[in-house]
Specification:
Order of helices and strands of chain B: EEEHEEHEHHHEHEHEEHHHEE
Structural class of chain B: alpha/beta
CATH superfamily of the largest domain in chain A: P-loop containing nucleotide triphosphate hydrolases
Strand order of the largest sheet of chain A: 6-7-8-3-9-10-12-11
Number of strands of chain B: 12
CATH architecture of the largest domain in chain B: 3-Layer(aba) Sandwich
Distance between the termini of chain A: 36 Å
Distance between the termini of chain B: 35 Å
Strand order of the largest sheet of chain B: 6-7-8-3-9-10-12-11
Strand content of chain B: 15-25%
Helix content of chain B: 25-40%
Oligomer: heterodimer
Helix content of chain A: 25-40%
CATH topology of the largest domain in chain A: Rossmann fold
Number of strands of chain A: 12
CATH topology of the largest domain in chain B: Rossmann fold
Number of domains of chain B: 2
Order of helices and strands of chain A: EEEHEEHEHHHHHEHEHEEHHHEE
Shape of chain A: globular
Structural class of chain A: alpha/beta
Shape of chain B: globular
Number of helices of chain A: 12
CATH class of the largest domain in chain A: Alpha Beta
Radius of gyration of chain A: 21 Å
Largest interface: A-B, 46 and 44 residues
Largest sheet of chain A: 8 strands, mixed
CATH architecture of the largest domain in chain A: 3-Layer(aba) Sandwich
CATH superfamily of the largest domain in chain B: P-loop containing nucleotide triphosphate hydrolases
Radius of gyration of chain B: 21 Å
C-alpha cells in the first residue's frame, strides 16, 4: 500500500467582512491506497474547505489557496493547468456532497448526467455509455435501472439521489472519493444503507475514501484512520481504534464524552464542552481550543502546540498537556 | 385533579389535501397523522422519534393548534382544544410553547435579544411595567445561560447555541406548562448539543416543565425522555417507558432504528451485527395495506399485508403495534 494523496501544509483563506479568515491553516494529512480516512470536526473547522482545496474548487475570489502542496500520485495538483485539473476531477478523484439535489442538474435525465462523464473522460459513446450507466445504477442498488435512466432527479427520493451521486462518482473508476457529509441529510435507516454501500463498493473496487463528517459514530464504523480538526488545524490524528480508545487531545476527549451513547448506561447528566465554537476572525495566539479547555495551563494561551507523536503507531496530538490525558480513568 | 395528565392526545388524525394543480398532478390525501394517541404526565418528557415524514412534527403542530386536526382530541389539563375557537384558545396558547430546530429562522434579525425577550412580556401583558420588564429580561437571560450584555446584541452576533438559548428564553417568557421541542439540538454542533440538553433538563427541574421532545436522534431521545413513542408513516409503532423501549424493544422497526445508529467505538462497531433495513419509507399518499411497515419489515409474514395491527399492551406499560410481538 502506497501513498495516494499527500496534503502538505495546505493553507486556504477567505476574505470576509470581518477580515481574512484562515479556514485551513497549514494542514498536512494523507490517504493511502484503498484506505478510508476521516476528517472530523464541527461546522467551520475547515474540513469541507480541505476537500474543496484538494479539488481546487474553493470559490474564488473570496476563497484562495495561499500555500502548501496537494500531491496526488506524485503530482502536485496545485501546479496543474486548469485543463489538466479537469481531467483529474471526476476521472481520478470524485466528490460526493451532502445535498445531492444541488449537485444534480434538474433538467437533464439521470441517464444523460451519467453518460456525460463517461463520454468526456473515457471517450465512450452512445449504446456503450448507456449500458455502462445502467450497470452503474444497478451496482448502487437502484432497481429497474433501464427505466430509471430516462427519469429526472426530482423523480428520485433523497436516498436514491445519493445512490445516483455514488454511481456518478464511481463512473470513471476513480482511485479516490471525497465524501463530504454524504449521509447527513438522510434518515437513519437510509444513512445506514448508503454508508454500507459506500464501504462495500470502496472495498470491492479498491477505491480510497476520505469521509468528512461531524458524526463520531459514522467515523467509528467506517474509518481506518481519523484526523480531528478544530479551527482550521488538525489537533489529533491516529488509527480509529487508538484514537477512540485513548484520545490524547482534550477536544477529542470532550467530543467523545459529550455525546450520549446507546451502548452505555444512561448518564444522569451529559458532559458538554463548555464555551462557544471559535471565532475564526479572532483566534487566540496560542491553542485555539484553550479558552474551552479543562486542561489548559498558562503556556496554552501564548504558544501554539504543533502536532507531535504521542504513544505509537502514527498517533499524533497537538497539545502541551497530552501526557495528562494518557488513559486517565478519572476522565471517562 | 392531579390524576389528570397534562396532555392527552386521543386518536389524532391529520390529513392534507394536495395536488390537482396547474400541471394536473393527481390530487390525493396525505395521511400525515393517522390515529395517534399518547399521554404526558406533568413534569415528564415524552420523546417522539421517527424518520422524516413519519408525522412527528405535524403531531406537535396539532398540539400547538398551528394545524387544526382532521379528527381526534387534544386534552390539555382535561380540556379538549380541538373544538375551541381562536378566542377560547388564547389562554391555552400561552401555556403551550415551542422551540424550533433552527433558532436563526425563528428570530427577528432586526430586533435585539432584549427586545425579543421583552416583546411577548408586553404583548401578552405578562409584565406590563417597563422597568419590571427589563428586570425580567435579565432574569430570563440568566435562566438560559446568557450574559446581561447579550440583551443588546442581534441574532447574527450570536453562535448557534446562543441563538437556541434565546429561542428557549422566548418560550420561557410565556411561563408555559408544556414546551414542544421540535428537533431543538439537531442543527447544533456536537459539542454544543450537550449544553442545550443540560439546560433543558435544568429548566424542567426548576420550573416543573413538561416536554414533548421531537427528534430523530435516538441517543439524545434516550437521554432526555421518560417515555418514548416511535412513529412511522403517521402511526405510533411502539410506546413505552425509556428503559423498556431501549433495553427490550418489541417492534421490528424500533429494533432496526436502534441498529442503524452507529456507536462511537470502533472496536464495538467491528463486532456489531448490521441490520440494514431494505427499501425506503413509502409515500404517505399511498400508505401500504395492513401494517404500514410490512414492505420493509425483516420478519413480516403474509397476514401483515392484510391486517392492521393495533397498538396493544404487550407487557405492562409497553405497547407495540405488531401482529408478531
Amino acid at each position: 500500500m502506497g501513498v495516494l494523496l499527500e496534503v502538505r501544509s495546505l493553507t486556504t483563506e477567505f476574505a470576509t467582512s470581518g477580515g481574512v479568515v484562515r479556514a485551513v491553516d497549514g494542514v498536512s494529512w494523507d490517504v493511502q491506497e484503498g484506505e478510508t480516512v476521516a476528517l472530523v470536526g464541527e461546522s467551520g473547522c475547515g474540513k469541507s474547505v480541505s476537500a474543496l482545496s484538494v479539488m481546487r474548487l474553493v470559490a474564488a475570489p473570496a476563497g484562495r489557496i495561499v500555500g502548501g502542496q496537494v500531491v496526488f500520485k506524485g503530482r502536485d495538483l496545485l501546479q496543474l493547468s486548469e485543463e489538466d485539473m479537469r481531467r483529474v476531477r471526476g476521472r481520478e478523484i470524485a466528490m460526493i456532497f451532502q445535498e445531492p439535489m444541488t449537485s444534480l442538474n434538474p433538467v437533464l435525465t439521470i441517464g444523460r448526467q451519467l453518460t456525460e462523464g463517461l463520454e468526456i473522460h473515457l471517450g465512450m459513446s452512445g449504446a456503450g455509455a448507456r449500458a455502462r450507466a445502467a450497470e452503474l445504477l444497478g451496482m448502487v442498488g437502484i432497481p429497474d435501472p433501464e427505466r430509471r435512466l430516462t427519469q429526472y432527479p426530482h423523480q428520485f427520493s433523497g436516498g436514491m439521489r445519493q445512490r445516483m451521486m455514488i454511481a456518478m462518482a464511481l463512473a470513471c473508476e476513480p482511485s479516490l472519493i471525497l465524501a463530504d457529509e454524504p449521509t447527513t441529510a438522510l434518515d437513519v435507516t437510509i444513512q445506514a444503507q448508503i454508508l454500507e454501500l459506500l464501504k462495500d463498493l470502496s472495498r470491492r473496487l479498491g477505491v480510497a475514501m476520505l469521509i468528512i463528517t461531524h458524526n463520531l459514530g459514522v467515523v467509528a464504523r467506517y474509518a481506518d484512520r481519523v484526523n480531528v480538526m478544530y479551527a482550521g488545524r488538525i489537533v489529533e490524528r491516529g488509527s480509529a481504534r487508538e484514537l477512540y480508545a485513548n484520545p490524547r487531545h482534550p477536544y477529542t476527549l470532550g467530543l467523545l464524552k459529550s455525546v450520549p451513547r446507546l451502548d452505555e448506561p444512561r448518564r444522569a447528566r451529559l458532559q458538554p464542552i463548555e464555551g462557544q465554537p471559535p471565532d475564526l476572525t479572532r483566534l487566540p495566539p496560542g491553542c485555539a481550543f484553550a479558552p474551552r479547555c479543562a486542561f489548559r495551563v498558562a503556556r496554552c494561551a501564548a504558544e501554539r502546540p504543533a502536532l507531535a507523536p504521542v504513544g505509537g503507531a502514527g498517533h499524533l496530538t497537538a497539545c502541551w498537556e497530552a501526557g495528562r490525558l494518557d488513559r486517565a480513568p478519572a476522565l471517562r | 385533579m392531579t390524576d389528570i395528565p397534562l396532555l392527552e392526545v386521543r386518536h389524532l388524525v391529520k390529513h392534507f389535501r394536495v395536488g390537482g394543480g396547474l400541471f394536473g398532478g393527481g390530487s390525493g390525501l396525505v395521511r400525515a397523522v393517522e390515529g395517534v394517541s399518547f399521554t404526558i404526565q406533568r413534569g415528564e418528557t415524552l420523546g417522539l422519534v421517527g424518520e422524516s415524514g413519519c408525522g412527528k412534527t405535524t403531531t406537535g403542530r396539532c398540539i400547538l393548534q398551528l394545524e387544526r386536526p382532521t379528527s381526534g382530541e387534544i386534552l390539555f389539563e382535561g380540556h379538549d382544544l380541538v373544538p375551541l375557537g381562536e378566542a377560547e384558545l388564547r389562554p391555552f396558547r400561552r401555556r403551550i410553547q415551542v422551540i424550533f430546530q433552527d433558532p436563526y429562522s425563528s428570530l427577528n434579525p432586526r430586533m435585539t435579544i432584549g427586545q425579543m425577550l421583552a416583546e411577548p412580556l408586553a404583548v401578552h401583558g405578562i409584565v406590563p411595567d417597563r422597568a419590571a420588564r427589563a428586570a425580567r429580561v435579565q432574569e430570563l437571560l440568566r435562566h438560559v445561560g446568557l450574559l446581561p450584555q447579550h440583551a443588546d446584541r442581534y441574532p447574527h452576533e450570536l453562535s448557534g447555541g446562543q441563538r437556541q438559548r434565546v429561542g428557549i428564553g422566548r418560550a420561557l417568557a410565556m411561563e408555559p406548562s408544556l414546551i414542544i421541542c421540535d428537533e431543538p439540538v439537531s442543527a447544533l454542533d456536537v459539542s454544543i448539543q450537550a449544553q442545550i440538553i443540560n439546560l433543558l433538563e435544568d429548566l424542567q427541574a426548576e420550573f416543573g416543565l413538561t416536554y414533548l421532545f421531537i427528534a430523530h436522534d435516538l441517543s439524545v431521545v434516550r437521554h432526555i425522555s421518560d417515555h418514548v413513542a416511535v412513529m412511522y408513516l403517521g402511526k405510533v409503532m411502539e410506546l413505552a417507558d425509556r428503559k423498556s423501549l431501549y433495553d427490550s424493544p418489541l417492534h421490528p422497526y424500533t429494533r432496526a432504528l436502534l441498529a442503524a445508529v452507529p456507536i462511537p467505538d470502533p472496536e464495538l462497531e467491528a463486532r456489531r451485527e448490521r441490520v440494514v433495513l431494505k427499501g425506503e419509507v413509502p409515500s404517505t399518499l399511498r400508505p401500504p395495506s395492513g401494517c404500514v411497515f410490512h414492505p420493509r419489515c425483516p420478519i413480516a409474514v403474509e397476514r401483515c399485508a392484510r391486517e392492521v395491527p393495533e397498538l396493544r399492551e404487550i407487557r405492562p406499560g409497553h405497547r407495540a403495534a405488531c401482529l408478531l410481538a
